[in-house]
Amino acid sequence: MPQTPPVPPSPRLRDYVAWHDAYRDPASELSVRLRHVQQVISAEFDARPGTVRVMSSCAGQGHDVLGVLAARPELYNRVRGTLLEINPVNAAIARERITSLGVDLRVVEDDASVSDAYVGAVPADLVLLVGILGNVSVEDTRRLVAVAPQFCAPGATLVWTRGSQEPDPGAEIRHWFSRAGFTELSYEEGMEGTSMRMGVHRWEGATPPLRRGVKLFTFLR
Ligand SMILES: C[S@@+](CC[C@H](N)C(=O)[O-])C[C@H]1O[C@@H](n2cnc3c(N)ncnc32)[C@H](O)[C@@H]1O
Fold first, then answer.
1. How many CB atoms neighbour CB 173 within 10 A?
2. Mind giving me the DSSP string for 109-172?
């Protein structure tokens, strides 16, 4: 039987399965970014006792958190959480990898741009907003940052990334996180000569209730 090619979720969007091919080249900008994000994730497991609840929005194939776990079997029984991903092929690849690792993560194939998708997935101790902000409008970035406390357990760490695609709000994003009540733990710009930047923030407050039915962002490409 001939195989039917998978249908991308929206014709407006890039092929987000093929997008992951850049990870095969260790010198690609995305691989550089991935390694930096993985270092933060790995350090979070070292800094926290017990189970770490992870929520990755627009998780793709889960290379960041699953890559860390694959390299560190001693963490297998210390992770729980949810990867939210809309693309069924990416979701299936992540799910398969989770099954082979035997870890307590689930992939929810859902639209992470609507707040309802986060029910049961938050609050988390480690919140990954990786590979989102460069694909949504500046206004949506502000909105997502303002809503992000609703994803965070007290003491949570949130990681975001963005390249320098125009229109580029630049370091403004850092101020939006501060204004939303986060404490900045680290910020990297132009990592290893790339256009990539990453912010890491701590949420110290109580978790605000998750507001349902809110449209958070629209992927533009
Ligand atoms: C740039 S990739 C980043 C993937 C992953 N976070 C990483 O850094 O490797 C963006 C991902 O978001 C997914 N995506 C796009 N719109 C989405 C939505 N509304 N809800 C959930 N996932 C979405 C795409 O399918 C893609 O896998």
1. 21
2. ES-TTBGGGGBTTBSEEEEEE-S-GGGS-HHHHHHHHHHGGGGEEEEEEEEEEE--PSS--TTH
Where do the structural domains in the chain lie, given as residue ranges?
Answer: 27-203
Q: Assess if CATH 3.40.50.150 describes domain 27-203.
A: yes
**pLDDT, greater one: 165 or 77:** 77
Over the stretch 100-146, which tens digit does the pLDDT of each residue have?
Answer: 999 999 999 999 999 999 999 999 999 999 999 999 999 999 999 99
Mutating to test ligand 1, I would choose from 137, 219, 221 the residue with most ligand atoms within 8 A of its C-beta, which is: 219
Tokens of 100: 């082979």
